[in-house]
Amino acid sequence: ERLESTSSAAAPRDASRGGAAGAGTPATAPPTLTGSEIGFDLGQSAGGKLFLSFVDPRSPAEAAGLRQGDVVLTLEGRRVATAAEGMRAAEEAWRTNREINLSVERQGREIFFQVH
Predict the structure, then answer these.
(1) 26 vs 4, 18, 30, 32, 44, CA distance in Å?
(2) Buried-most residue among 80, 92, 103, 105 (CB within 10 A)?
(3) What is the pLDDT of residues 14-54, one digit of tens each?
(4) Threshold 0.85, pTM exceeds
């Protein structure tokens, strides 16, 4: 099955803009590879399933227990059709509440998470 990833990162970061460890980056906000404060990117399989294509180390997403490869079932209590729609919903929830509620399928079980 072909997998596609939707990243919120526009371009690689350089140290002069705080994108590398220690270069103007506060200790409480480690640099992200996803380009998102929440620390995950979504992908979508050719069959339409949404999944976590990447989880940043030391991010709120990793701290919540999310793992790369988890299949996303719901975001903020509803199903989303595309990776782009899912990222918009997650980023909107984060901006509004500094929290994201989602459920994922892992090893055949639905697991609920709060990212904060």
Answers:
(1) 32, 9, 7, 12, 33
(2) 80
(3) 333 343 344 444 445 556 677 788 999 999 999 999 999 99
(4) no
